[in-house]
Fold this sequence. Notes:
The structure holds 2 protein chains of 2 kinds. By secondary structure, chain A is mostly beta strands. Chain A has one helix spanning about 150-154, and strands at about 5, 20-25, 30-35, 55-60, 65-70, 90-95, 100-105, 120-130, 135-145. A 5-stranded mixed beta barrel of chain A has the order 5-6-7-9-8. The radius of gyration of chain A is 17 Å and the shape is globular. The model of chain A has no long low-confidence stretch (mean pLDDT about 90). In chain B, about 35% of the residues lie in helices and about 20% in strands. Chain B contains 14 helices and 11 strands. In chain B, the strands form 2 sheets. Chain B has a 9-stranded mixed beta sheet, sandwiched between helices. The mean pLDDT of chain B is about 95. The interface between A and B is large, with 46 and 46 residues. Chain B: This is Lipid-transfer protein.
Amino acid sequence: xxxxxxxxxxxxxxxxxxxxxxxxxxxxxxxxxxxxxxxxxxxxxxxxxxxxxxxxxxxxxxxxxxxxxxxxxxxxxxxxxxxxxxxxxxxxxxxxxxxxxxxxxxxxxxxxxxxxxxxxxxxxxxxxxxxxxxxxxxxxxxxxxxxxxxxxxx
Amino acid sequence: xxxxxxxxxxxxxxxxxxxxxxxxxxxxxxxxxxxxxxxxxxxxxxxxxxxxxxxxxxxxxxxxxxxxxxxxxxxxxxxxxxxxxxxxxxxxxxxxxxxxxxxxxxxxxxxxxxxxxxxxxxxxxxxxxxxxxxxxxxxxxxxxxxxxxxxxxxxxxxxxxxxxxxxxxxxxxxxxxxxxxxxxxxxxxxxxxxxxxxxxxxxxxxxxxxxxxxxxxxxxxxxxxxxxxxxxxxxxxxxxxxxxxxxxxxxxxxxxxxxxxxxxxxxxxxxxxxxxxxxxxxxxxxxxxxxxxxxxxxxxxxxxxxxxxxxxxxxxxxxxxxxxxxxxxxxxxxxxxxxxxxxxxxxxxxxxxxxxxxxxxxxxxxxxxxxxxxxxxxxxxxxxxxxxxxxxxxx
Lengths: 154, 395
Ligand SMILES: [Zn+2]
C-alpha cells in the first residue's frame, strides 16, 4: 500500500494489519450504529426506548458471516468512480457481525460470487477503491476466509 | 363509526416511455377516474397528489399541479411523498379527511416521467447522504439490493433461477390483455435465463424497468357514494403505512447496514408488519384474500411478498408458484395485472395502479385477466427510508 493512501471516508474503519469497522456506540444503552455519524453531528440514539445523545467510537469484529451476496456486472452510475476501462465486475456482500449488525461491503479484489455462500465466514480487509489527486483512496472490503487446504483444490 | 370509504372511480394512463410531461399523464388518469365515478370535478373537495422527485417544482407540489391543470375548483390540496408507497400514503391522507368528516369526495393522483437506466442519485457530493454513499463507496445499485434478497431465497429455501423466471413468465402472460401494461408479450423461461445477468443471480428480465405512467382514484364517504347512486362500491378496508420497528434487521435500500439487534431479530420483519397492520385494521385474515397485487421490483421479490402477506409459510412461495396457485385460475392469483414485470415502475403512480387493478378485479371488470369471484384483494409495496404500504380492498 502506498504511503499516500487514505480512507475514502474518514472514521469508518481503521487501517493496518488487522483493520476493523468503527461504529458509534450510545454511551447510555450500548446501541451500535454503522456508519457512525460525523463527529460534529448530533447523535440521537436509534433505540426508541433510549434518549441517549452521547456516543463513542466502537470497533467491530473483523470476522463475520455472509448474510447474502451479489455482484455488479454493469458499471454503476456516478457517483461511483470507475477504475478500469472497460468496466470489470466486482462482488458485494452483506455480512452479519457477531455484535448483531449486517454491514454491506464490496468483496476483496480477485473474489467473485463463486467464492461466496450464505453463512460463509469472511474477514475485513482494506483495499484501494479509486485514486484521486491525493493518491489512493481506500475502503473496507469483505474477503472470504478460505479453510487451509481448500485453496489448493480450487 | 365506519372506518370504510368507497372507491367511487379509478383511472389510469397506459404505462410506457412516451416522455410527455407527467402532468399530462396525471390529468388523463384523473379525468378517467372521475368519468368512471360519474362525479363532476367541481364536486371534488380534496386533491392529493403523489409527488414526483424527478420533474422539478411542479412535481414537488403535485397536488397543486394536478388541481390547477384540471382547473382551479377551490378544493383543498395536499402532496405526499413516500417513495414506492407514495400513492398509498396519498390515499391514506384522503381517507383520513373523509373519515374525519372533513371531506366527502377526494381525488388522488400519481404520475411520473422517469429517466432511462438505473435510478441514480441526484448530482452533487453528499458525504452524509446514504443514497449517495451507497453508489460512491460500494457501487450498490437498486438491482444489487434485490439480488441480495434473491440469493437468500436460493441459499435458504432452494429457489432456483428457473423459479424466478417462472414468475416473469406468469406475469407476462397475466399482462397480455391489460390495456394499461407497457409490455404485452409472452416471455419464455429461456428468454429470462438467456438475458444478461445484471446482479447475480438476477437477469435483466428478472428486474423491472422504469416507466412513465399515471393512476388516479376517487374516494368518497360511503354515505356520499350511496347518495350518488354508486351501488355496492369497492370499499377501502385498510391502508397500512407503518414504519419499521427497531431493530430493523433486513438490510434496506439505500442503507449500508442494518440496525443493531443486540437481542436477536425482532418478532417480525418490516414487510411482515406492513401486511399485519392492514389485516388487523380490517379484521380480515390472509385466508380471506382472493387476489394480491405485490411490488415485483424483481421476480424473486414477488416470492418474498407472498410470504410477507401470509399467503403461505416462510420458504414455501416456490411451492405455490410451481403448483400454479399464483397464476390466474389458481388458488390465490398474484399480480393479475401483470405486475411491475409488465408495467415497469412509475414511482408515485404505482401504489395507486395496484388499487386501480384490484378495484377492477373486485368489480369483475378485469377483462382478459379476471380473478373469478374475487371479493377481497390486498396490495403491498416497499420503498426507501422505512416507507411501505399495504391496502386491503373488499366488495
Ligand atoms: Zn441508546
